[in-house]
Design goal:
- It is globular and about 50 Å long.
- By secondary structure, the protein is an alpha/beta fold.
- A five-stranded parallel β-sheet has the order 2-1-3-4-5, sandwiched between helices.
Length: 157
């Protein structure tokens, strides 16, 4: 099975995922899982490297972001910096399950929050869901730009 991007002008381009994870063993496991599922995978181990990578690589389709990245900026700050420059779905992959941490992540990116122990199926499904939500949000933005008045009028009826 190949994970292909059917959203844009290159219908057979494989989906490119950036994994941001400071624990090498976890990053390697996630990368292996995603490559077996047909994704193109890049990995970085810090928030600063993630921001720099995303500014240099416009073809990344989705980011899997750990929240606790050790020294330097954490995953939430890295995500905020990335989203200032790029419109890309970010799925948080973390071991934190505290409500306050989930709420903080949801306030930054509403594309998903996955526990590290969730397994391969959940990780792949989270990516596919994030890509679908992102494509739908972009389509709605395009409609809003094309038909701003008619959309507002229909909402008031």
């Amino acid at each position: 099975m190949r994970a292909v991007d059917r959203r844009g002008p290159e219908p057979d381009r494989r989906i490119r995922v950036l994994i941001v994870e400071d624990q090498v063993i976890i990053a390697m496991g996630q990368a292996q899982t995603l490559r077996k599922s047909g994704y193109v995978v890049d990995t970085v181990s810090s928030g600063e490297d993630a921001v720099e990578f995303m500014l240099r690589n416009a073809d990344v389709d989705v980011v899997l972001m750990d929240i606790d990245l050790g020294p330097g900026i954490d995953g939430t700050e890295a995500t905020e910096r990335i989203l200032e420059a790029r419109d890309v779905p970010v799925v948080f992959v973390t071991s934190h399950s505290e409500k306050s941490m989930v709420d903080k992540a949801k306030g930054i990116s509403r594309y998903g929050y996955v526990m590290k122990s969730s397994g391969a199926f959940v990780l792949v499904e989270a990516i596919m869901t994030a890509l679908k939500l992102h494509a739908e949000r972009r389509a709605m933005q395009l409609l809003d730009r094309r038909y701003p008045r008619s959309r507002r009028d229909s909402e008031t009826r």
